[in-house]
Amino acid sequence: MSTLTALIFDVDGTLAETEELHREAFNEAFAAAGLDWHWDPALYGELLEVSGGKERIAHYQRRAGIAAPLDVAQVAALHAGKTARYTARVQAGGLPMRPGIRRLLAEAKQAGLRLAIATTTSRPNVEALLAAAAPLPAFDVIAAGDEVPAKKPAPDVYLLALQLLGLPASACLAFEDTVNGLVSATAAGLRCVVTVSAYGGAGPFPGAASVLTHLGDADEPASVLAGPKLPGGAADLAWLGTLAAGAPG
User: Is 71 in the active site?
Assistant: First the structure.
């Protein structure tokens, strides 16, 4: 069995609680485009069942029965406006990493593990978040949603991350916050740790190696919602290695 060699992270809701910022950016883009659409938190939580911003807009149009829906090019332009607003807000700062993220990234880098991202969001969103959160250890691989044929819950973005890492799934561990992300990771053969988030849903998360409130720090211990006990309340490399050693759920 392979030794744990790489950690692969989702972004929105996993590295940071970004979804409320995404929601606000969508609404700002709608207003700037002269649309009377408004996504409140409850509606946005439902729309998040659809992965990808452009896909979410298209789904909303069908769901709401928009009489004159935007075409593919118009949806892309609207989403580009949303992305520009989101990245500007992220670059302004004030979006902290979730508990345990900085600690674990530093521990992993010091131990020689590789770090990767597998996300449905676009690369500019990822790069803006990482730049605003600096200093962070460098990620070796970024696999973004627009770089694969199908977004989560399809396994494509995780398969791309594994290909770019040049590693088998058995040598890696994934981190997610949603059922769609969990399904995507496990379909790619990965064991997956779920850290529940504001918009990620309460589960259940069948097949997860562990479900935690977050990854935990010394001054902010995590609680286990499902899976093995977490001594000390912080997911460290030794504990994660035992999770990775099992077969996918």
Answer: no
